[in-house]
């Protein structure tokens, strides 16, 4: 009788353990589903010359990284209208050169911009000074980071990496770098970083990079090549006709697929696990 009782208790315990395991598995599946990310869309705007502009959307939020030249503004606004974007939650101006800030005045005139992120820059630069005065007149909040910051828009997590010094000989080295995380998909934007700034970025630890917006339009640079070999991106966006010299060689070495934006728009979508892309034509929605 005792043996039978022990057997019954053992069976009940086994059933209880199985039930508990089932509940835990179900709870984990629910939590995983509950915390899944909404798809994110990314557009790299085709520009008339070597210039940068990327539009990122997630969960009703919009982030724009750089604005091309003034001559690109109407095309960028057209892309925003096609995506039915009526506000920009965050505009990141990586540095004050005209091929990155040129379209900003037109965007500020056309759409509400909640926040602008830009680097500390104390040189005399009339277009940049005029742009700052325009932002102040419009009451746009400006973030000038002196340390790493994290911003979240929808399911996009942006790690903002400002330049580490307050003075650089080359304006391009003032470039803010941005690591965008969407689930397990990672995008890295290096502005126009040149030797000094690239040396700073080489000291960083990177996750697996799905897409790299290549520094300084993919121009020939041993330090640009070194960073490419370090991060080994799957996709590389070059905001020019083509990458050059050692930079081009490094992209081949790591088997990166290269997308060039001179006169060509690209649309991408991330589901948090994978990143897909296609070229946009005038007939695409």
From TrEMBL:
Matching SUPFAM superfamilies: Metallo-hydrolase/oxidoreductase
Domain of life of the source: Bacteria
The keyword S-adenosyl-L-methionine is assigned to this record: no
Annotated keywords: Hydrolase, Membrane, Transmembrane, Transmembrane helix
One Gene Ontology molecular-function label: hydrolase activity
Pfam families per UniProt: Lactamase_B (PF00753)
Signal peptide: none
Membrane-spanning segments: 12-31
Domain spans labelled Metallo-beta-lactamase: 50-241
Gene3D superfamilies, per the entry: Ribonuclease Z/Hydroxyacylglutathione hydrolase-like
PANTHER family: BETA-LACTAMASE DOMAIN PROTEIN, DNA INTERNALIZATION/COMPETENCE PROTEIN COMEC/REC2
Protein name: MBL fold metallo-hydrolase
Taxonomic source organism: [Clostridium] leptum DSM 753
Taxonomic lineage of the native organism: Bacteria, Bacillati, Bacillota, Clostridia, Eubacteriales
């Amino acid at each position: 009788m005792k043996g039978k009782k022990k057997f019954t208790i053992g069976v009940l315990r086994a059933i209880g353990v199985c039930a508990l395991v089932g509940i835990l598995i179900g709870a984990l599946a629910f939590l995983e589903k509950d915390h899944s990310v909404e798809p994110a869309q990314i557009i790299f705007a085709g520009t008339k010359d070597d210039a940068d502009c990327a539009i990122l959307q997630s969960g009703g939020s919009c982030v724009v990284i750089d604005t091309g030249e003034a001559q690109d503004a109407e095309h960028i606004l057209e892309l925003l209208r096609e995506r039915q974007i009526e506000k920009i939650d965050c505009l990141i101006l990586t540095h004050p050169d005209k091929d990155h800030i040129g379209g900003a005045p037109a965007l500020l005139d056309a759409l509400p911009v909640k926040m602008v992120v830009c680097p500390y820059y104390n040189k005399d630069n009339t277009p940049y000074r005029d742009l700052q005065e325009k932002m102040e007149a419009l009451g746009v909040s400006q973030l000038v980071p002196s340390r790493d910051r994290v911003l979240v828009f929808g399911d996009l997590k942006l790690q903002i990496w400002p330049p580490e010094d307050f003075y650089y000989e080359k304006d391009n080295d003032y470039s803010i770098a941005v690591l965008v995380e969407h689930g397990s998909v990672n995008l890295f934007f290096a502005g126009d970083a040149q030797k000094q700034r690239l040396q700073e970025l080489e000291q960083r630890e990177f996750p697996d990079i799905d897409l790299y917006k290549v520094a300084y339009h993919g121009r020939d640079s041993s330090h640009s090549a070194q960073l490419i070999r370090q991060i080994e991106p799957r996709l590389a966006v070059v905001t020019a006709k083509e990458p050059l010299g050692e930079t081009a060689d490094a992209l081949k070495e790591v088997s990166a697929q290269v997308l060039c934006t001179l006169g060509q728009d690209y649309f991408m979508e991330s589901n948090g696990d994978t990143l897909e892309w296609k070229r946009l034509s005038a007939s695409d929605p």
